[in-house]
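Please check this:
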Amino acid sequence: MRSSFPGPILQSAVDEARVAIFADLGSTADLPREVLNTIANIYYQAFLPVESREPTGHNLPSALKDFINENARLTAAIEHIPRMIQALRAIDKRARPDLYDYSVEFFLDILKYKIADADNKTGLRRMLERKLKWVNEISNLIEIMRL
């Protein structure tokens, strides 16, 4: 996995994302660090001003398509994250640690690594794809947001 996040951190987007995360999820103390940091990055990206996310590049049709797809992905993620976290929290991690760990991994495969059709792939296949993915995250965003 390679990681990168372009540009300076915008404090107003950090603050808005933090408020939205607590409103949508309540306390986050029970969530694994990597899951919480991925959630923080998704919310942060969604709260960035549009002008900081607008398409760039020489191939405008392709850049515009990527911009629209990314905005749709962020909107869908924010809509579904509360239900996904509710389902994760419903798993008794002491009684079913295997199911809990699988669910965490699957959550990350979909939202962090953006593995297409993850539900139709084996764990081994997803693990291999994870190694090849470029992750667009701020690695310490949960510390910056104080989550």
